[in-house]
Specification:
The protein is α/β, with parallel strands linked by helices. It contains five helices and six strands. It has one domain: Rossmann fold, CATH 3.40.50. It starts with a strand and ends in a 13-residue tail after the last strand.
């Protein structure tokens, strides 16, 4: 089974706050960002039979545009939602409680955000949905950094120590190849095919 993923374009986040489930709209440069990505994506030979997306606006708008190019209707799925950062949502990282920030830095993927999720919980919901896909064919997800990272960690063996979530670019295109293991779970490999727009480094502030 082949799975393509596209991360959303830059969200409109002028206050530079932490966002996961916050339903930000796309930035004013959406058309240019999505056009640049689509121009490359349409040359990669992708032939997905179904297009799934996160229900959040920044993914749904891109999925609508990609779906129009591929003649595929986007199918929103809650499993493809971004990480829930709980009480950190809408705050600058520098405003997060310093004890919580220290605990997160100590365990970047295992830390459970207060009233939110841990990245390990994202891994679980993403791989459970992944395992529902048929063994044959190609599929496309328009989704978030946390979801794409879950595929890389939980289904492709990337170690937790390599925290890729904070390094992913907007409109990044990745291709995954999966086969089922003896337990019936998809395991595989991935290749980044389009790097998109680099994110600025995370500003976590001083502890």
């Amino acid at each position: 089974m082949k799975l393509w993923t596209i991360r959303h374009t830059r969200p409109y986040n002028p206050k530079d706050v932490c966002y996961g489930r916050l339903d930000f709209d796309v930035s004013p440069s959406f058309e240019q960002e999505s056009d640049d990505m689509l121009k490359v994506f349409m040359t990669l030979g992708a032939k997905p039979s179904r297009l799934y997306c996160s229900p959040l606006l920044r993914c749904k708008k891109l999925a609508d545009k990609v779906g129009a190019a591929l003649c595929l209707p986007p199918e929103p799925r809650d499993a493809l939602l971004e990480m829930n950062f709980g009480r950190w949502e809408g705050k600058k990282l520098t405003e997060a409680p310093r004890d919580e920030m220290a605990a997160w830095i100590k365990d970047l993927r295992g830390f459970k955000f207060p009233e939110g999720e841990s990245f390990h919980e994202v891994d679980k919901r993403v791989t459970e949905f992944l395992d529902t896909l048929p063994d044959e064919g190609e599929f496309l997800w328009v989704t978030h950094a946390g979801v794409i990272a879950a595929l890389q960690h939980a289904a492709c063996g990337l170690p937790d120590e390599d925290f890729v979530e904070g390094r992913f670019s907007y409109t990044m295109v990745t291709c995954f190849s999966f086969t089922r293991d003896a337990a019936g779970h998809y395991k595989g490999t991935f290749e980044k095919l389009y790097d998109g727009i680099q994110m600025p480094p995370l500003n976590m502030g001083k502890l």
